[in-house]
Amino acid sequence: MLGAFGRAFRTPDLRKKLLFTIAIMVIFRIGSFIPAPGVDYRAIQDYTLPDNDILGLINLFSGGALLQLSIFALGIMPYITASIIVQLLRVVIPRFEALHKEGQSGTAKLTQYTRYLTIGLGLLQATTIVTLARTGQLLPGLDPIVNDSPWTAFLIILTMTAGTSVIMWLGEMITERGVGNGMSLLIFTSIAASFPTALGSILGSNDGLQKFIIVMLMIVVVIGLIVFVEQSQRRIPVQYAKRMVGRKMYGGTSTYIPIKINIAGVIPVIFASSILAIPTMAAGFGEATDGWVQWVQRNLADPGAPLYIVFFLVMIIFFAFFYTAITFNPDEVADNMKKYGGFVPGIRAGRPTAEYLDYVITRITSAGAIYLALVALIPTLLFVVLGISTNIPFGGTSIIIIVGVGLETVKQIDSQLQQRHYEGFLK
Q: Which residues cross the membrane (predicted)?
């Protein structure tokens, strides 16, 4: 692999793409440390934000920028949310589904809608964060870190929203001129940046070395499981009949439909974490002596609580099936195959093919949902057993994202090396 990296950097155009990607990632990290105007930066240096809170999730995806109320405090989260919403709206709004089927022009239009929605969500999230910061509810235990001046609040909201726009532009620049998917690489950068601090906190605890070794072994095992599953495919054979067009014969070839075990990716885990964080946020606005607030804090605020684990499992499985049903339409695939003369051997074209694909997808998604639930819960359960704080970025969501993005980026570099007649990373 080191030799492949050397060949990649010796190729002029590929070296330029790699250096450009690294430069954008460095700029993104620098922006995460520049505080927004009007923020008491020193007061928040040693504060720890719980990761099970929705703000903790945003802080994780921003690489710690939210905790510092920097110009990139919102991170990539508004864009992720906007992208998911636009995909879900394809089921509700026929116009969006029609644009999706139009090809490149329709995709460009949907991307434009995603950008507008990202700015709107960024404005909404920035307003919420600044409001919580002014009232002292963003970082409980600290005095308000933003003064009550309306002009200061407006300036911070404007700065954070502009930062979201810059992050979106940086991600698109990587996709266009660099290597890999820009948004995914920025998420990768944010999460990976938090790992050294978390490892240091484990080493500094009681029996730190022993816990550190166990955690590292857990990470290696989970990464191995993720790589094995993410690389696995169920290949459905497809045969294309021969057909005469003019004087030329077309078709007669054999191919396959590659179906990943985890079609939904990390989206079900993000959805489940976000929904479970809503009651915790609502409890923050209630009185500590209220019965419902105490119940939420006891059962839904702690990732190690039995009820939290049950709800987390159920929602991951539900959203795995829900998101797969949105992204993979067996009827559409069967119709496209029939249109071009394709069929699955032993299965009639049309409706029988759609039913067969739906049967296969249901079985595969069942395995993928169980895999997601296991990967998401193994780190949390281990931390509870070892007595380690769960407020560290080793949750299943983080590891799945890092490994998944790493695999996809290596595949893209590998394909570009093979186009230049070099041996790639994968053998």
A: 18-36, 65-92, 113-133, 153-171, 183-203, 209-229, 305-328, 369-386, 392-410
Cα 57 → chain centroid? 11
β-strands 342-343, 248-250 pairing: unpaired
Note the CATH number of domain 206-387. Answer: 1.10.3370.10
Where along the chain do the CATH 1.10.3370.10 domains lie?
1-194, 206-387
Sign, CA dihedral 65-66-68-72, equals: positive
d(CA 253, CA 130): 59
**HSE toward the beta carbon, residue 248, CA cutoff 13 A:** 2
Provide the pLDDT for residue 421: 60
Maximum distance among all alpha carbons in the chain?
A: 83
Alpha-carbon distance 415 to 427, whole Å?
12
- Encoding tokens for residue 416? 């570009």
CB-CB contact of 236 with 357 (8 Å)? yes
Measured CA to CA, the distance from residue 142 to residue 120 in angstroms comes to 29
Question: What's CA 176's distance to the chain center, in Å?
Answer: 20
**Model confidence pLDDT, tens digit, residues 137-192:** 666 656 666 666 788 888 888 988 998 999 999 988 998 888 888 888 888 888 88
Phi then psi for residue 234, to 5 deg, are -105, 110
Residue ranges of the chain with per-residue pLDDT less than 70: 1-5, 40-68, 136-148, 205-208, 242-252, 281, 284-289, 302-304, 383-396, 420-427
CA 360 to chain centre: 25
pLDDT of residue 341: 78
Among left, alpha and beta (phi > 0; psi -120 to 50; other), residue 299 is: alpha
Beta-strand ranges (E) seen in 52-118 are: none
Query: C-alpha 319: how far from its chain's center?
Result: 14
CB atoms within 10 A of CB 348: 12
pLDDT of residue 74: 83
> Following DSSP, what letter does each residue of 106-129 receive, concatenated?
HHHHHHHHHHHHHHHHHHHHHHHH
The b/e string for 221-230 (b: 16+ C-beta within 10 A; e otherwise) is ebbebbeebb
CATH number for the segment(s) 1-194? 1.10.3370.10
Location of structure tokens 């395995």: 367
CA distance 409 to 414: 8
Tokens found for residue 139: 């970082």
Residues across the chain: 427
